[in-house]
Amino acid sequence: MQYLVSDYFATGEGRCVSILITQEKEKVEAAKQFLELFGDWYFQGAENLTHEEFWKKYHAYMPLYAKRLLEDVAGPPGMFNFYTQLYINFS
């Protein structure tokens, strides 16, 4: 399972969190998916996190149902692909 996250923020530009969780085995292929979904601007700052790192910092961005699937004792479904992007600007 690959956990890719870009957490971009700048004064006056707001904050944009882009998340891709995929069962892609190869990091390069997961990175290509991220690039296709979110574009090169957010790809620049994307990190490939471990499950623990992701869960500690970004689990709140996931819907409850998706969290439950990942936490299931039997393991995630045979195919699991989740992505989301949240943009906030308080300026």
Output the keywords.
91 residues, four-stranded antiparallel β-sheet, 4 strands, 36% helix
Overview of the structural elements:
This protein has 91 residues and is an alpha+beta fold. It has one domain (2-88). It has helices at 27-43, 51-58, 64-71, and strands at 2-10, 14-22, 47-49, 81-88. The chain has a four-stranded antiparallel beta sheet.
Short description, anyone?
The chain has 91 residues and is of the alpha+beta class. The protein contains three helices and four strands. The longest helix has 17 residues, at 27-43.
How would you summarize the topology of this molecule?
Layout: E1 2-10, E2 14-22, H1 27-43, E3 47-49, H2 51-58, H3 64-71, E4 81-88
Antiparallel strand pairs: 1-2, 1-3, 2-4
Largest beta sheet: strand ordering: 3-1-2-4
Oligomeric assembly: single chain
Structural domain tally: 1
Biggest pleated-sheet summary: 4 strands, antiparallel
What is the succession of H and E elements? EEHEHHE
Give average pLDDT, whole number. 91
- Rg, Å, rounded: 13 Å
Distance between the termini: 36 Å
Number of DSSP strand runs: 4
